[in-house]
Amino acid sequence: MATTLAALFGVFVGSFLLGSVPWGVIISKCFYHKDVRDVGSGNIGTTNAMRAMGKVGGSAVFVLDFGKGVVSGLVALALAQALVAWDPEGCTAFVALALGDAWQAQAAASSNCLVVLFTSVAFLGCILGHVFSPWLGFKGGKGIAVAAGCLMVTFGPVGGLLEIALFAVVVAATRYVSAGSIAAAAACPLFALYYCWDNVPAWACCAAGAAVVVWAHRGNIGRLRVGCERRIGSSKGDGEGKDA
What we know:
About 75% of the residues lie in helices and about 0% in strands.
């Protein structure tokens, strides 16, 4: 059981470090000889990367940030499955301690719960690393791309694509990227009620990660409230300002 707990802690730390890699800054400095933080909102994520580097650079940032989430989730998934194969009794005991004795006699169900818990911890760790990157003075992006990538593993492809679809629908309806991001983050705990219905710690990780993403959009929320948020296709000066 101690091994499982140590592995879970390792998943969190590893996902945090992977999430903390600031691809927006790296690509802008290495290939465009500028700092994405000096342009537009100053954010290192996809939307501001598009403003600073155009579609090619912005798309590269999205793919790499999305990839951080996918890799974090896949590593967590593989580690959980390896632990179940190596020490099934210890894993079952750990799940019984975390979720209650009812899982003690359900090895197959407890194994699935362990996988969901590991991938949910990876989801939270990757988001925290991206939003609070230690390489940028514990500042960073807003976590949408990394969250979407990790949810492809935590919720599975269907759940991940539903979150992306919700984001796309809200953006298309409002022409606000931030509105789509906030809507997708707010819906995450609701989706987690389905995918993690029997796993309270996993649900809590998903809800905490979503809350961090919403918090990271606090500047956007303020601009949306006063009607000065920048829409897709608006002129460069409209609603543009440094994020908090």
